[in-house]
Amino acid sequence: MKIYLLLLLIPAIASAFSPTSQQNCTPIDLRNESLGEVRNQQDVSWCYAFTGADMLGHAFNESEKISAADIAIGYNETRVGLFVRWLDLNLLKRKNPLTRLMPHQNGFNKVSLINAMKDGLCPERIFPSESWTKVTRTENGETQTQVPLAQAMLEISALHDIKNSLTSENIPFYYSFKNVDAAGFVQLLQNKKIEKFYSSLRKAVCRDDRRPFEYNWKVRMVFKNPRIFSRISEQLEAGRLVGLDYDSRILKDAANRGFKLSELHTSPFVGRRWNDSEKSCEYLVRNSYGNDCSVRYDQSYDCEAGNIWLNESKVYTSMTSIVYMQN
Fold this sequence. Notes:
The protein is an alpha+beta fold and about 325 residues long.
């Protein structure tokens, strides 16, 4: 666990790097049908899990998306995940009243990839990662609505606070999943801690559809260094996505420099090209803010349905490390 804590303690110090030459910056685009549209993490801190789901799906050539929610909740059960949760509750976010109510937190891409390959995959269509189906009881019967995850988690926490008074008959609303009806939802709420509710939910929802991966890839983490782009290009040229850990402010402000731990973000590289006007190699970042390019990005960037082209200097200034998979 020490290497991951090191990432929290060491700032991303900017220094000179070895730029990629035009000759070595041939076009690469690893986007395909299995990756599909860019997903939107919204207000849930699961960027590392969305990245991991994309990396795993691409590496194993899965025909459908892998659940980022499953990867994130599984990560929360690891020793690293439990320790980060303890840090949030007792040190980093102890003054934020929402910390106890929300099971999501930042995480390490490498740990989540290793743990996901151990647990096996759960499809996105079975355990969604962007919104959940809320079933509300009314005088005229039940109605269904799609609720963003952050809001759903706050509502689930409110139900958990009164769990002892709830039954499958009197619960005013519940969230419906495969294998989880009103009675099953009330039963899951009886877990003493809200974290255990989500662990049990994940297992119940995915139990009939979880599949093992064919084999376990090795997962490498490389900290920022002057030759980091050679390693990135090596992996992209081998047809593999690369996870980037970086300061998210560079997405909103092209002039941003430096690194703040509170802005730590993870996205995969899915392409490369040469920008002749800037005389620089560029990398295509598949971010998890959805496919709308008009809201959360610097308008000078070339954005393609939520995929952002960033040149090497901007990537290097904001990055801390990369993660990639090797078979």
